[in-house]
């Protein structure tokens, strides 16, 4: 029994780390532009495809060469998808910056479909096998069976999130990003190049989300053009749960959602006497979304008093 | 230093200012007076590129800045301490200073920060506190300190005395005098007419978005038309404040 619980804890940590990484992109973009960037889930998908291209190009053997190639591919994924993120902001959102808030959101929905279709046309709609970024060695831990892939995912995600936190908290550009997200007009009045700060956000957010895609594909060993839809919505739920706009909230929300989902799914057949099976796992995330929006729309770390933080209130 | 000619400006389709001519010379303190809603804040916003300009020309140090982006205008050496101070509440005192310095040449951040701290020692004590925890007076000091991080040639101050105790107002205005003495031009919007005209060299009074009367500070203080500006705006008390 303890073995099963520990097993589930590790599964939840792995998925939670990936949710958190994607949720960060939603929350950062929302923090600065008050925009739900629906194309983010598809940038997550794009990350996995760019990584696949990297593996095909480099065709690394094993051992140290493999590790070096994996690191190189991770950097390339971040750069390429980060660049795509910046390009998307420049072409699809910036011209709409002074319009009604619904316009850029519709623009992001359109882009989401366009990106999915583009990948589908070039790479085919079928699932493609994905070689894990980390070596897969099964380990026995207190009766649970975990793999080095899981450990690699959690460690990589935590390192990236700590890196982001330090960048936002300590670097001068991080200070500027926070200033722009608090008050764009005043930042501009003080001489801040607001476009540059927004581009920074649109580079880092999609870059992290894309690495999340690589980790996700490493975990499940498979990828497909539509993989970003459900995962994107779940990570979005995690961001709402944590309080959209809050970086800490996105991380906590990602892990909380994963624990809720993993343990809920494991309990479902037992609680319903086999009537509902584990294939119903997706109901947990969206049940959570509905509950949060009903009872605590500002999320765990959002500002309760601020109307701005109530995402749905003004946009719909 | 700053020269405005035939300015008409507003927000969106709404025009607020028209026919404004104004001059600020080097090291001079120029005050803009007028009742609430006369267009004083809009005037400052027009200069710093924050509202729509429909006609006229604004030149700063000989350069036309009429259609420039706000961040470029600030980078050119024109700092604006906006209405309500607009301190970044979620940033620390020092981070507020960082924002105003990022991406600039000139003196290093450390040098300018020390200059600001020398002017307002309380900011040094509270440098790592969240700005939201500062008192109103301290926030005003931070707003001025922040404006100075750009090594400006001209500082625009929008009602720096608002909501402050008299002792603090005196302190803030003394700093304004010191800045002018150091060669920085000041364009000051102020509700407190008597104090503003004591401080300033020259004044302009706005009424419903137009210039009503202007003149040297002492002359203007004695001008009966100045009181009418406030009476017209329905703000009878202000002239005696």
State mean pLDDT of chain A (0 to 100 scale): 89
Counted by DSSP, the helix tally of chain B is 10
Task: Please identify the structural class of chain A as seen in this structure.
Answer: mainly alpha
- Radius of gyration of chain A, in Å, reads 19 Å
Radius of gyration of chain B: 17 Å
CATH fold annotation of chain A: ABC transporter involved in vitamin B12 uptake, BtuC
Query: Residue ranges of chain A: pLDDT <50 for 5 or more in a row?
Result: 305-316
Helix fraction of chain A? over 70%
Please provide the count of β strands of chain A.
4
What structural keywords apply?
heterodimer, A: 316 residues, mainly alpha, ABC transporter involved in vitamin B12 uptake, BtuC, two-stranded antiparallel ribbon, 4% strand, disordered C terminus, B: 241 residues, alpha/beta, six-stranded mixed beta sheet, four-stranded antiparallel beta sheet, 10 helices, 10 strands
Written overview of the protein:
The complex is a heterodimer of chains A (316) and B (241). With 316 residues, chain A is mostly helical. Chain A has a single domain, classed as ABC transporter involved in vitamin B12 uptake, BtuC (Orthogonal Bundle). In chain A, 73% of the residues lie in helices and 4% in strands. Chain A is built from 12 helices and 4 strands; from the N terminus they run ααααβββααααβαααα. Chain A has a two-stranded antiparallel ribbon with strand order 1-4. A two-stranded antiparallel sheet of chain A has the order 2-3. In chain A, helix 2 packs across helix 8 (194-220), helix 5 packs antiparallel against helix 8 and helix 9 packs across helix 10 (247-271). Chain A is globular and about 60 Å long. Residues 305-316 of chain A have low confidence and may be disordered. With 241 residues, chain B is of the alpha/beta class. Chain B has a domain at 87-152. A 6-stranded mixed β-sheet of chain B has the order 6-7-8-3-9-10, with helices on both faces. In chain B, strands 2-1-4-5 form a 4-stranded antiparallel β-sheet, covered by helices on one side. In chain B, helix 3 packs parallel to helix 6 (136-148). The longest helix of chain B has 16 residues, at 166-181. Classes of the chains: A mainly alpha (316), B alpha/beta (241). The interface between A and B is medium-sized, with 19 and 26 residues. Chain B: InterPro entries: AAA+_ATPase (IPR003593), ABC_transporter-like_ATP-bd (IPR003439), ABC_transporter-like_CS (IPR017871), BCAA_Transport_ATP-bd_LivF (IPR052156), P-loop_NTPase (IPR027417). Chain B: Residues 2-233 form the ABC transporter domain. Chain B: Belongs to the ABC transporter superfamily. Chain B: Keywords: Amino-acid transport, ATP-binding, Nucleotide-binding, Transport.
